[in-house]
Specification:
Blueprint lengths: L9 E4 L3 H11 L3 E5 L3 E6 L4 E6 L19 E4 L3 H14 L3 E7 L2 E7 L5 E7 L1 H12 L4 H16 L1
Parallel strand pairs: 1-4, 5-8
Antiparallel strand pairs: 2-3, 3-4, 6-7, 7-8
């Protein structure tokens, strides 16, 4: 089977290019890369992640909803839970709507919205999840083994 090397870019349909570009540059710190008129690309220099913003001429002006088939949310990685706290402070400073940090079984996450109501999330895995993901990258694991580990982990949380 051919390999899947990663994600090249993510492209979002937006209602106002200038407003969206300001959000992603000012709030999230992306750098403008190219302007094609009806589309703009931005880059996160440290990770190389490229985000395209597109204003379709016949596009709707309705805000995004994850209840429509297609995109649910965009999950971004934070370096630590402390970094999530820093993002909360930044969102407060910029008036970005967000749900406070939630600590869950496999890590912590912070959900927020862009100007078109597109759902975004910063998350950080806990040590258990980070270890499992690293192991999955280095060796084959059967679905039965994965299921067993998850069941054992949840049982340990109940004890």
């Amino acid at each position: 089977m051919p390999s899947f090397a990663g994600i090249d870019h993510l492209s979002l349909s937006v209602t106002q290019l200038d407003r969206s570009e300001r959000f992603y540059t000012d709030v999230l710190g992306l750098m403008p890369l190219l302007d094609f008129g009806t589309a703009r690309t931005l880059i996160d220099r440290p990770s190389g992640f490229i985000l395209a913003l597109v204003k379709h001429e016949a596009g709707t002006t309705e805000p995004f909803t994850e209840l429509t088939t297609g995109l649910d949310h965009i999950g971004l990685t934070a370096a630590s839970r402390g970094e999530l706290v820093e993002w909360e402070r930044r969102f407060d400073a910029y008036g970005v709507p967000y749900t406070p940090i939630r600590d869950m079984e496999f890590g912590s996450h912070l959900n927020f919205r862009d100007p078109d109501n597109i759902a975004l999330e910063f998350s950080v895995s806990n040590e258990v999840m980070a270890g499992w993901l690293e192991e999955l990258r280095t060796r084959e694991m059967s679905q039965a083994e994965i299921k067993s580990r998850v069941e054992e982990y949840f049982a340990s949380l109940q004890a």
